[in-house]
Amino acid sequence: MKLVLIKGWKGKEEIISENPTEEGISELLNSLDWQEFNSVSLEQDSKNWIGVSGNLNQDGLAIVFEEHGTLFLSDEAPESVSQLEKILKLYLNSDKRFKNFGLSSEQQILEPTSQTKTDYSLWKVKYEAKKKIDNINNGIAVLLTVLIVGLAVSFFYLWFNEELQFIGQETDQIIATVTEIKLKHQYNGTLYQLVKYEFDYQGNHYIGYFKGIRTTGKHKIGDLIKVKFSMDEPSRSKRLGTLKSKY
Predict the structure, then answer these.
(1) Neighbours of 226 (CB within 10 A)
(2) In the predicted model, what is the mean pLDDT of residues 199-218?
(3) 172-194 pLDDT per residue, tens
(4) In sequence order, which residues have a C-beta less than 8 Å from that of residue 177 and are 6 or more positions away?
(5) Sheet strands side by side (includes 61-67)
(6) Is the pTM of this model over 0.70?
(7) 3-state class of 163 per DSSP?
């Protein structure tokens, strides 16, 4: 026999014990927050088991058991966790009195009726519907997380490559000339070139800067570089590459 727990509406089935005891049942039930949904079951096999589930908040508590493939539901909702504990211990000890739970006479045995089957079906539909909603919400949350991370990565990529300044603008390319070079210290103490370049566009003169590092190569005054710039705001520009000669 297995003692199984589903904790919360979003919980997954968890086998607590393959050899449950009364003490284990008591410890498990008393450790759960019954203001939230929980489901605890004792399972002999797939067609013989008993489950207590629900919460003390809005949905209430319920007892369902299956015997030789036939489902039964108690006709009255349990009022406390101690009642759930008692019914599970009776079932654990093969005490048939667990079938008397919720009826006016202790000698009556719960029989499957159209009403109990309907009640259980409604409870099951409600549970499965809520699970589906939760799954959809989880999917949306994952999708939003992926979208936010993707946007953040894209933003960083555009910023790192100086493409952010060109978003929504028409661009063109032109040849610029290196006119000034200054040596600067990086945060780690190494030197880099602060390269100034200049170009003319539609009768106006523009300047720009870039860092001459290992990946861009060493530059000297008079070098020609290919520049990308915004046609609406030519002062927004970036180096694309260094040319050996004009073309």
Answers:
(1) 14
(2) 89
(3) 999 999 999 999 887 777 888 89
(4) 197, 198, 199, 222, 223, 224, 225
(5) 13-17, 2-7, 38-45, 48-54, 61-67, 70-73
(6) no
(7) coil
Q: Which residues pair with 39 in a beta bridge?
A: 6, 53
* Contact between 36 and 8 (Cβ < 8 Å): yes
Please answer whether residues 61 and 78 qualify as being in contact, where contact means their C-beta atoms are separated by less than 8 angstroms.
Answer: yes
Six token digits for residue 234: 């030519």
Question: Per mean pLDDT, which range of 37-41, 87-91, 119-123, 171-175 is the poorest?
Answer: 119-123
- The answer to whether 11 and 127 have CB atoms below 8 angstroms apart is no
DSSP state of 202: T
Tokens 């006016």 belong to 104
- Look at the chain and count its residues: 247
Q: How far, CA to CA in Å, does 128 sit from each of 2, 75, 77, 167?
A: 23, 21, 20, 46
Distance between CA atoms of 164 and 155, rounded to whole angstroms? 8
CA 128 to chain centre: 20
- For residue 17, which of 119, 92, 116, 115 has the smallest C-alpha distance? 92
pLDDT of residue 17: 92
Angle between helices 81-92 and 22-31 (to 10 degrees): 160
The rounded distance, in Å, linking the Cα atoms of 106 and 110 is: 10
Cα separation, 194 vs 174, whole angstroms: 20
Residues 100, 63 contacting (CB under 8 angstroms): no
Which residue type is seen at 24? Answer: G
Helix%, strand%, coil% for the chain, nearest 5? 30, 35, 35
Which of 172, 197, 171 minimizes the C-alpha distance to 182? 197
